[in-house]
Amino acid sequence: MMLDLIDKALLKLLQKDCKQTNKALSNALGLSVTAVYERIRKLENNGIISNYVALINKKKVDKAFVAFCHVKLVQHSQDYVIKFEREVRKLEEVLECYHISGDYDYLLKVLVEDMEAFREFMVKKLTKIDHIGSTHSMFMINEVKCTTAITL
């Protein structure tokens, strides 16, 4: 699907605040409410908009300890990869998991309450997954930039 300038402007507005009414969006874009509704439906139906979420302040819910874990599997067989990915999807502490190139196989973004909770996560959950050869963890000192918005 080709995005025109109006689609891009609409997506920018929705990424900033998806709870805006269609009327507010129509005023900002100079379109009718119906035109805005139809464009949003088209973007949803074509998979451009995949979900609507509430972004939560980590500190307000006592989950401000962010760690990044590199994970290396003992082997790169299809079975090991499939099993690891299936198991890591079940871990509620893991916000993001990427299969990456380089010295390690995966990069995980982990969110927990504090260092003690991170240790418990590592010992009781992550390292219990079969076929993990090694891990390497780094901890966030300060969040310099955090956005979910994609510039179009």
What does this structure look like?
The structure is a single chain. By secondary structure, this protein is an alpha+beta fold. It folds into two domains: 5-45, Winged helix-like DNA-binding domain superfamily/Winged helix DNA-binding domain (Arc Repressor Mutant, subunit A), CATH 1.10.10.10; 59-139, Lrp/AsnC effector binding domain/regulation of amino acid metabolism (RAM) domain (Alpha-Beta Plaits, 2-Layer Sandwich). It contains five helices and four strands; from the N terminus they run H-H-H-E-H-E-E-H-E. It has helices at residues 5-16, 22-29, 33-45, 78-89, 115-124, and strands at 65-73, 94-99, 106-112, 132-139. 12% of the residues are buried.
Give structural attributes.
152 residues; alpha+beta; Arc Repressor Mutant, subunit A; Alpha-Beta Plaits; 2 domains; four-stranded antiparallel beta sheet; 5 helices; 4 strands; 36% helix
Short description:
The protein has 152 residues and is an alpha+beta fold.
Q: Which SSEs are present, and which pair or pack?
A:
Layout: H1 5-16, H2 22-29, H3 33-45, E1 65-73, H4 78-89, E2 94-99, E3 106-112, H5 115-124, E4 132-139
Antiparallel strand pairs: 1-3, 1-4, 2-3
- What is the percentage of strand-forming residues? 15-25%
**Principal-axes shape call:** elongated
Provide the low-confidence segments as ranges.
none
Count of β-strands: 4
How helix-rich are the residues, as a percent range?
Answer: 25-40%
Instruction: Assign the structural class, choosing from mainly alpha, mainly beta, alpha/beta, alpha+beta, or little secondary structure.
Output: alpha+beta
Number of domains: 2
Given the structure, what is the number of helices?
5
| CATH topology label of the largest domain | Alpha-Beta Plaits
